[in-house]
Amino acid sequence: MKMNKKIISTALGALLVFGAWGSAFAADDTTPSTSPQPTKQTTAKKESRGPKGGVKLETLAAEKGITVDELKTQLEQERQAKLEAQAAEQGITVDELKAKLE
Length: 102
Known about the structure:
Blueprint: H1 2-27, H2 40-47, H3 57-64, H4 68-90, H5 94-101
Helix pairs in contact: 3-4, 4-5
């Protein structure tokens, strides 16, 4: 009985060692990366992005056929409408909501 336990323990230990050894070699990635080269389309998309990854205002305004100033006004009006709706939903004023969000 003791011999069986020793054999099983030794086999499990060896399995553990060889499993860890195999994992170490599997993690060693020596093959070169085959990432695709950027195309004109992906490059154009990057150029139309702002510093934080969002669409540049100039690009968005051009798509809508308006000026950047008109776009800014439109975005601010949309933001104000959303704040008013949220404030009304919560039963508070817009100023109270802004204070709450800060």
